[in-house]
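Notes on consecutive records. When two proteins share a document, each keeps its own sequence and its own C-alpha cell line. Never mix them. Below: protein one.
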Amino acid sequence: MLDDVRYALRSLRRAPGFTFIVLATLAIGVGANTAMFSVVNAVLLRPLPYADADSLLRLTRGTSPPDLLDISQRAQTISGIAGYRTQFFDYSTGSSAERLDGVLVTGRMLELFGASMRLGRTIGADVDRTGAERVVVLSTPFWRAHFAEDPAVIGRTLTLSGESYTVVGVLAQSFSFPGDRADVVAAFAPQAGREATARGAHTLRAFARLKPGTSIAAAQQDLDGIAAQLTREYPQTNQDVRFSLQEIRENLSGGIRQPLLILLATVGVVLLIACVNVANLLIAKGATRRGELAIRAALGATRARIVRQVLTESLVLAVAGGFAGIAIAWWLTTTIVALAPEGVPRLDAASLDAPVLLFAFAASLLTGVLFGILPAWTSGAASVANNTRFGTRLTGGGNRLRAILLVAEVALAMVLVVGAGLLVRSFAALMAQQPGFDTTSLLTGNVTLNGPRYNDIRVRAQFWEDFETRMRSVAGVRDVALTTDLPIGGLPIFHNLAFEGRAVAPGTEPEVYYRGVNPAYFRAMGIPLLKGRTFTSADRDGAPLVAVVNDAFAKRYFPGEEVLGQRIRWASGEAGWITIVGVVADVRGLSLDQDEVPAVHVPHAQELNPWRRWMDVAIRSSGNTAGIAAALRRELLAIDPNVPIVKVRLMDDVVAASVADRRFNLLLLGGFAVVAVLLAAAGTYGVMAHLVTQRTREIGVRLAIGARPRDVFTLLVGRGLALAAAGVVIGVAASALLTRVLEAMLFNVQPWDVTTFVVAAAVLMVCAGTASFVPARRAARMDPLAALRSD
C-alpha cells in the first residue's frame, strides 16, 4: 500500500497541470461541504448549554405570570416551570448613558436552565413578590468590560434605569438565554409592577422541565387540562388560551432548520458534480496509461491489483484535496457568519472544531471512492490484448461512460440553477413590493424612557414635546415622526378591541394592530390620508379620545358603512370610548411579504399604559443624514443625559434588514449554483476536448475526403449540445420534484415557475455550447495531413 501511495505521488508530480485542476475542483467541493456542516453543527447539532436539555420544553406562546403560577401548582408531569422576558436597561456612565440588553426572570429561571455561576449566587424564588429586593446578575462579558473582572463586584450597588440593584452574581461565560442576549439579569417581580399580577399580560417566555420518564405528549395533555380549567375560571382573559409545548432545540432552530438543510444538500450536489468532473478527468488520464497498465498486466498484475493502484491514486488526490478544502472551509465559514442575518441562534459558534474536521476527512475519503471507483474499474477491466493493440485510444464503452457522467453533471447543475433562479425571482418580487410609505432620507432610532422619573405619562409627554421642538429647529430636518412601533422594523403590539353596539363574549374580542403616534407621524412617514383627519396638537391627555384606522380595518369591520364617527374601545375598558376620526392607506407594518393587518393609531399623548416606555423616532431630512444623526444624539443628551438612543439607521437599511434572511439564502444558493454551472461547463469542455483528441484521425480523414471545417465544427458542437440537452431534460424532471422543498422560502413565485425553468435551461445550454466551441474550432482548423500522421 505504501508503494502504491509513493507511486501515486510521483505520478501526480509528473502531471502538475492535471493535479492542480483536480485538487482545485475537490477543494471547492469539500470546502463548501465542510463550511456548511460547520454551520449546521453549530446551529442544529451541538449540545445546548443547559443541564439535561432534552427534558427542557418551551411554551410556544407568551404566558402571563398568574398563569405561570397556576401551571406550577397544578401540573403533575413537570418538575419546574419559570419564565423571563427581555428588558432594556440604561446604564449611566457619567456623561452619557449606555443601553444594555437584559432579561427579567422569575424565581428559579436560572436554576431551571442549570446556569453555572462564575461568581456569587443565582436569583432564587425569594424574589417572586412585589417589594422584594432588586437584585441583578451580570454576564461575564459585561463584568469583564465594565469591572475588569473584579471579584469585589459582588454586593455592589448598580444604578440601572434610575433604580438601584444589588449585584449578587456573575454568570459563567458558557451560559446564554435561548435566542436572547443578556448583559444583565434582574428579578422580574420587583421590576414588573402591575404586569406581575395581570393575567391578560402574556409577556413571559415560559420554559418547563419534564419529570423523569414523562413524555411530551403526557405533559401536553396535562397542560391542556389546566388550560381548560383556567378558561372556565377566567373567561375574559383565558378564552381559547392553550399552553403548547415544544422541545427547546426545535424552538430555537425550527425557523432556520429547513433553509440550512437545503443549503447543506446544495453543497452536497456541488460535491457530486466535482466528483463527476474528476472522474471524467481520471478516465481521460487512464487512456494515456493503457500502455503502462498493459505492461503491468503482462507482468502478472491481476485486475484487482490494477484497480487498487488506480483507486489509491484517487484517494491520494482526495486527501490532498481535503486538506486544501479545509482552508476554503475556514474562509467560507467566516464569510457565512459575516453575511448571516441577525437572530440565527449560536451561529457565531461555527468553527472548524474536531467534529467538523472529522467530517472533512470522511467527506474526502468518500469523495475519493466516489470519483475513483469508475476510473479504477474501467482501467482494470481492459484486457492486455486491447491495451497493447490500441495504445492510448479509448474504447466505445469509455466514451459512453464519460457521456453518461456529463449528462448527470448537467442534470445536477440544472437542479441548483433552477433553485437559485426561483430564489432570485422571489427576492425580486419581494423587493418590488411597495411598503406604503416613503423610505427615502428617513433616519430612525429607538428611545426608551426608563426609571421612576418617567412613571408619569405627563412627564413622558413633555419629554417628547421637548424632543420634537429641538429636532425641528435642526437645519435639514423636515419633519419628526414618533411611534410606538416603526413599520417593518418595530415591535408589533396587538390589543383586543370592542365595538360600540356590538355584543361580543368576553375574551373573544378581535385583536388589532396598535400604534401610538404623534400628530406629525402620517405626514413625516408619507402615509396618505384617505378620509377624515389625522391628529393635531389638541389631541392631548384629557381631550376626547380619538383614533385613526387604516383601510384594512375599515374594510374588515365596517364594510359598506361609514367608518368615521364610529366608536371603539380596548377590551379592558380602562380607556373609555374612542372615536374614529380618520382613515389612512395601508402600509406593510410587519414585513414586506405580509399585507397590512387591521390597525388602530392613537395619539401617544393619550396613552394610559404606564408600561409603554419606548418610542421609535423617524426624522425626515433633506439629505445630510450623518449630520442629523449627530444632532439627534446631541439633542437627546441635552434633554436627559441618562436617556440613550439606539438602532440609529436609515429606513432603507431597516427594510434591507427585514429581508436579510432571504438575501442570505439567495447569496449562498446562488453562489453554489454558479459554482455548479462553472463545473458543468468545465466538464463539458473536458469531454469535448478529449473527444477531439481521441477522434483526431477520424477528423483528419473527414477533412481529407472533402468535409468542410464548418461541418466538423457543427458536428462537435452538436455533440456537446446534445449531451447537455439530455442533462437538462433529466434536470427539469428532477427539479420539478425537488424544488417543492423551497416553497416555504418563496414569495409570489411557484416552485414550478415556467420562466425560471426556461431561463435555467438556456443558461446551461449556452454554457455547454460555449464550452464546446473551443475544442470544436480547434478540430475545424486541423491540418488533415498532420492529423493522419498523429496515430
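Protein two starts on the next line and is unrelated to protein one.
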Amino acid sequence: MIQKSIKTLLLIEDNPGDVRLFRETFKEQDSDHTELTSAKSMREAEQYLAAHAVDIIILDLGLPDAQGLEAVKRAHAAAPRVPLVVLTNLDDESLATQALKEGAQDYLIKGQIETRGLLRALRHSVERKIMDDVLFGEKERAQVTLNSIGDAVVCTDIAGKITFLNLVAEKMTGWSRQEALDRPMAEVCRILDATTREIIANPMDMAIVLNRSQQPSNCILIRLDGFEIPIENSVAPIYDRQAKATGAVLVFRDIRERKRREDDLSRLAAVVESSYDAIVSLTPQGVILTWNHGARRMYGYSTEEAVGQSILVLSPRDQPVGVSRLPEMGERADAVEQFETVHAKKDGTQIHVAITLSPIKDSNGQVVGVSSVARDITESKHLEEMFRKAQKMEAVGLLAGGIAHDFNNLLSVIIGYSEMLLNSSKSDSKMHGRCEEIKKAGDRAASLTRQLLAFSRQQVLEPKVLNLNTVVLETGKMLKRLIGEDIELQTALHPQLGSVKVDPSQMEQIIMNLVVNARDAMPEGGRLSIETSNVELDENYARLHPPLKAGRYVLLAVTDTGTGMDRQTQAHIFEPFFTTKEPGKGTGLGLSTIYGVLKQSGGHIWVYSELGHGSVFKVYLPQVDEAVQQSRPSQPAPKLDPGTETVLVVEDEESVRALTRTLLEEAGYTVIEASNGRAALEVAGRYSGPIHLLMTDVVMPGMNGPTLAESLVVTYPSMKVLCMSGYTGTFANFSGLVDRGMMLLQKPFTRDALLGKVREVLESQVAVQPRQFVL
C-alpha cells in the first residue's frame, strides 16, 4: 500500500480539550514524529498556511469564524493541494458527507476517534489525495510514483471498468495495461475470500456505495493463468472536485512471503506445543514466558498458572533449582547449557530432568530470552540404577563363586579328615568330642559356601515341575513353630495355580528365608501373609523391572506388618553379608541366596517397603505347560560293598587329591592319580590295566576335566566319568551334561557321599559320549 509520511499537520480547532487529545495521541502513537500545529480560528489558519507548507489539515466544522461548508471552502482556497480531513459531531454526518463532496478526503467523528487507527486514517486520506491528483491533471507524475511502489494499484471508472494499472498490478494479475483497459474490474482482478473461497463481487461497488474506503482484508487473487496469490487489499472511492464519485482505486500487495513466514511460525508453534518434552521460554532472569503442552503434562501446572512465574516454581523444597546459568546467556549469545537436575511437579512429586538451555536472539543478534527444553529422565535414571545394581551383584557373585571354589577344597580336606578322626577316636571320648566339633564347624562352613554358590548362581539344581501351593502347605507345618505365637500366619493360595519348574528343596529354602526375614521384622508380633497367584506381566512392567521379560508367571508374595525398610536399605538387601541385624544374629546370606537361586531358575524377586508400614517380597517364577511331577519317597542309603575297580583321580589341589585317594583305597579301590590333565594322559598311557572310572576336578589349569574325559573315553570306551567341583560356573557351560545323566560330586563332600556317588556312577548303564563334552 502507498506509504506517505505525515511530517507536518495543521489542526484547526477552537476546543483546547480536543487539541490536547490530538497532541497526546500523536505523542503516544506517532512513530514518524509528526509536527502538529494548531489554529483556533480560520483566520489564524489562513495566515499560517500563507507562510508554511503542511502535509494534511484537520478541520473542525464548527469554528467561531467559519461554519460547516464555508470552513471547507476557505481551507481549500488557502491550501488547494493539501489533503483535508474534517471533524464533526455524531449528529452531523450529513454535513460531513457534504464536506466530502466539496473536496475533503475523509472525516472523523468526535468521540469515536480510534487512537491506534488515527495515523492510518490520515495516511489513507493523503493517499486518496494522491489519487485525486492523478485524476486531476497530474497523471504522468502520479503514474511514475505508482509504478515505483511495491503494491499493485488498479483504478476503475464509476461503471467498474479498468482505467489504470501500475506495473506491479500488471505482473500480479497477468494482464497488460492495454489488455486490461475498459475491461470489467472483476474480470481482471478475480478475488476470492480466503476463508470461504467464494468469488468476491467487484469490491469497487461496495466502496462506491458506502462512499468511503474499506479496511485491508486478506484475500486470494487468481492470476490470468489460474495461479493463486494470497493478497492483502484495500479499496477506496475516487471523487471529483464536486465530491462526486467517479470511480474507485484498489490497492493490494503480495503476501506470499509473509504467509510463508506465518505458516512456518504456525508449524513451529504446533511442533513446540505437541512436543512430549517441556519447552519453555524464559526471560534472562528466569521468568516463564511460554509453557507448552509437554510442560503442562510433565509438571501439572496449567499455562495460566505457570506464565509470569519464576522458574523457581519448579524447585523442590529441599533442592533449590539454581538459575545462575540464565544470566550467562545474555553475555554469551552462543552459549548452550546441558545438565541434569531435580524438579518438583505441582503435586510435590520430584522428577529427574535433563535440561538444555539455549539463548533466544532478536534480529540484531541480541539475547532477549532463554529457551529451556526439559526431558523427564526419571525412568531412565531408575533403569540405570537397576543396571548398575545388576552389574554390582554380578561382580559380587563372581567373587563369591571364586571364594567358594577355593574354600570348598579346604573344607573337603577338613571334613574328610575329621570323619577319619571320628572313626579312629571312638575309644577316646574326649578326643572324639573334639573331632565332632571340628566336623560340625566344617559342616557349617560348607553350608555358607553353598549359600555363596546359590547367590552366584553356580550351584547344581535338580529342578522339577511342581505346584507352589504344595510347597507352601508342606513348609507351613514348620512355619508356625518358626514364627512364634505372637505372629498371625495367613495364606491365600490360588486354586488354579500354574506350574513352575524349580528345585523343590531350594524353593522350600526360599520360603523359609522370607518367613524368617519377616519374623525378625516384627519383634513385637504382627501379621504374616503368604499368597500365590497367576499373573500376566506386560511389556511396560518388564521395561521397568529389567531383566524381567513379559509373559505368564506364578507369583509368591510374602507380606509382613513389620518395621519396613528405607530406600537405602532396600538397595543393598540382596547383597551377600549385608544385614541389618545385630552382630551374631545373621549371616547376611538369606536374601542373597534367594536372589541367586531365583536368577538361576529364571525367576525374579522384588521388594516393596516403607518405614513403619511393613514389607512385601514378590517372587516371580515363569509358568510352564508341563504336568506336575510326583515326588518319590526317599529311600534309605544302600549298604556299600567294598570296591574292586580302578579309579584315576585327577585333582590339582594336592590335599584334596590325597584325601580322595585315602578314602577310595580304604574302600578297596585301586587308585592312580595325577595333578592335571596332561599328567593324567601320561599316567593312563603308562598304566597297563583297565581304568573303570575317571574322577576328575572340573576346573584345572591347562586342560579341564571334561576335555580330559573326551580324550580318555576314546581309549577307554567303557570308562565312566565322575566330575568334582566346588565351583560350577564353568561346569554349567557344558550343555546338557547334568540333564543327560552325567554325575557330579559337589565339594565339599563327606566319605559316604564320595563312596556312594562312585558306586552309583560305576553301576550306571549310561555310556559316556565324547560329544557331550564338546566345548
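For the record: DSSP finds 25 helices and 30 strands in the chain.
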